[in-house]
Amino acid sequence: MNARLFNWGSVVGIALAAVGLGLAGCAVTKGPSFDPRAKAVGAGGTNASGIFTNATASKIKPEWLVPSKEPYRLGPGDKLELELVGRTGTRTTTFVCPDGKIYYDLLPGMDVWGLSLEEARHALETELAKYYVRPQLSANLSRVVSKRVWVLGRLNKSGLFPLDGPMTVIEAISRAGGLFTSRFNGTTEELADLNHSFLIRGGEMLPIDFKKLLREGDTAQNIYLEPDDFIYLPSSLSSEIYVLGAVNGPRPVGYADNITLTTAIAKALGTSPQAQLTHVAIVRGSLVQPKIAIVDFNAILKGRATDVRLEARDIVYVPLSPYRTIDRYAKMITDTFVRTVAANEGGHAVDSKFGGVGVSSPLTK
């Protein structure tokens, strides 16, 4: 396959590599953490002693809030309307073929992949001049196919949408029909979990706070999208615990009252022989500003420490090596999580028979 073609398999490969990723080094840097054994109270997931502390959040870059000045670049599948001005019978609708070329009139095939519409028009005119005297070509882009964004999850019309011009996160969600809602007790309730919604670009989660954007109207979160950006808004009805990393069967584990770290890891078929059991992490709360605890799971197994009670939507990560800093460790875990979920949700969107890559997060209708 041409390297310029979008390759869904590469996304799956990134996710698979990320699931087993560990951070090398043994130095442990003091950083924000929470006590996972403390009983959480209140809707905010805090506790009376205030021991929950957020990991340092990344910041939105100012350039993300400005539409790109780059012209649209053609790619395979894009449809164009072409006509030689003043020459009857030359008007046609054609498209950029998988080889990146346009076949028009007497031309054997012109490579236009990566060209702007104006650059492509000029190139075609130059070649047509071999057959016509001073040809003038009218060229219009009628349909965008090669540039698209993924907007999946609890939306009324989730799917892949053409990026046919500057588009913000809000505009993409609007194209997907807006958030899916249901009526309970006479009121309308949104069924998307905004704390765990995310946007991936180039394999990395961008620090977009969907709760601030969609509930509070914070336009500082409303960035412009780029080709192949992946937006996912999971179901608020989901209550799994996700077990990732150096375990024999990375997977979502159904939440139940009083479920513990030991039980969750056991349901993921236990840890691999290379696992670093003294640095097992539990990530809790918003993906944009998570809370993290480092647990000595080895001490729990040997009866030297109390087991840890988990909460719905916790992410348990078993590393292959110790972490260097809390903030870096938290980011690595959340990036691993979102890439894995994106690989599964994107795979299912493309092929309903897609088997999954480590942990699946199916929508709850």
| Main beta-sheet strand count, sense and barrel state | 5 strands, mixed
Our count of helices gives 7
Q: What separation lies between the terminal Cα atoms?
A: 36 Å
How many separate domains?
A: 3
What structural category characterises the helix and strand content?
alpha+beta
Question: Which percent bin holds the helix content?
Answer: 10-25%
Q: Which fold name is given in CATH as the topology of the largest domain?
A: Outer membrane lipoprotein wza fold like
Strand coverage percent = 15-25%
CATH secondary-structure class of the largest domain: Alpha Beta
What is the architecture of the largest domain at the second tier of CATH? Answer: Roll
**SS elements, strand count:** 17
Oligomer: single chain
- Average pLDDT, rounded to a whole number, is 82
List keywords for this structure.
365 residues, alpha+beta, Outer membrane lipoprotein wza fold like, 3 domains, five-stranded mixed beta sheet
Topology:
Blueprint (H helix, E strand, L loop, with lengths): L7 H12 L59 E6 L7 E4 L5 E2 L7 E2 L5 H12 L8 E7 L4 E6 L5 E4 L6 H7 L5 E4 L2 E4 L7 E4 L2 E3 L3 H6 L14 E4 L7 E5 L5 E3 L7 H7 L12 E5 L6 E5 L1 H5 L13 E4 L7 H25 L15
